[in-house]
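Usage example:
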Amino acid sequence: MRNALAIAKKELSIYFTTPTAYAVFCGMTFIAGMMFLAALGYFQRMSMQFLSFQQPQLLDHLNLTDMVVYPLLRNVGVIFLFMTPFLSMRLVADEKRSRTFELLMTSPLRPFEIMLGKYLAALGLMAAAVILLGLFPLIVSFFSASGTLMNAGTTSPVEWPTVFSGLAGLFLVGAAMMAVGMFVSSLTESVVVSALVTFVVLLVVWILNWQAGRMEGTARAVLDYLSMPTHLDAFARGAPALKDLVYFLSFMILGPFFTERAIEAHRWA
Amino acid sequence: MIEVRNLTKRYRDLAAIQDVSFDVKKGEILGFLGRNGAGKTTTMRILTGFLPATSGTAKVAGFDVFERPLEVKRRVGYLPEQPPLYLDMTAYGYLKFVAAIKGIPKAKLKGEIERVANLTAIGSVMDRVLANLSKGFRQRVGLAQALLGDPEVLILDEPTVGLDPIQVREFRDLVKTFAGKHTVILSTHILSEITATCQRVLIIRDGKVVACDDLAGLAQKHQEQKSLEEIFVKLAEN
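Running the assembly step on the lines above writes:
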């Protein structure tokens, strides 16, 4: 475990002493901020309209969690789709390219420890990303509590359980994507190939349910289940089922497992 | 300490090394000679467990490198041809990381890093980012990494590449102090390095051992050649 932690620490220190993590996180928060403002603007227009209808009871159906935070968290999944390949691309591929893989493979480390260290670092990055994104609901709650966003008393405050479920869902999406990215990275020496292939694989998994609409029965259910947004949506709505968790966990187990195999394979060829 | 028996490594049709056998006794310094592409690096990579052999066996300290990799890796310090540096890290951060994955206890970590830094004279660059170091310093940080944990066996692949003449001399003096304490395999193109530091020489050509003897024995066998250089040219040239 100490070995894995040493590797995780090394990975994170490289991410955070080079511009990589900062560039990716900046991009992520900037785009998320645009999405956030758009959702907030829409919410404001809707509440103004409802007010002008003189139907205050309709306002009860408007709430910040459902109209701002929920779409935001869902859309951030798409940002993750673009972001994670850039974070995962160097995990193993860069070690091979810069010959440091030789150091890892000739040190008294098990392939499992190498993999675990790398994946822990990846999870650390995703946790940092999710914490940054948690600032948006925090802003919403701050302003809705102080009543500046709209008339006090008419808005329901942010429902934190739903928000936390959504953020947990995002973390799982990130963790699953990093698992795919790490495995792809362990198959190549080129970070560019690594990022590109990861992106293509993730995009396919992301849009799998676009085909579901044309299908019926089992095929439809299968495609729906296999595509990632279905499960992120369940978390963002605040009602994740066990199958949603199982979906993400299967990535988080299979990705590292295959990565470990890919690293071990180097000892054989 | 090191036993190599009938080691062969094939990449498809290309045989990088064929039927290589040799022994290195404890505390001995073996000079490993051969032209570029003769199979020096491949042999060293097999000995360190980085590559598997196609056939044959290699044992370090009695442990088979393929069957018991961790036992072997714990005892071997390895400097590859290209020093395996994380260029984004500082020299100190890098050595700390390597010390950690080599299992050096936390309490001894600082002292051990200081020790190897002194041996390789890199104390002045410990806080600098490796990417900004000159080739000679990078090479020495790589050497420092191999020395961490005071391993019984040192495998050094062209360790003096990029060093200036004074550093080369310092390096030779350092290696001489290893005699008797560490078992060393040292590959190089520089023949004077061998005569200065090594007790025995192993010369390979096209993946096959052509000579494995101590310096005196080699001189006796090839009396018509005046120097090691001439012997090398005769043996290593096809």
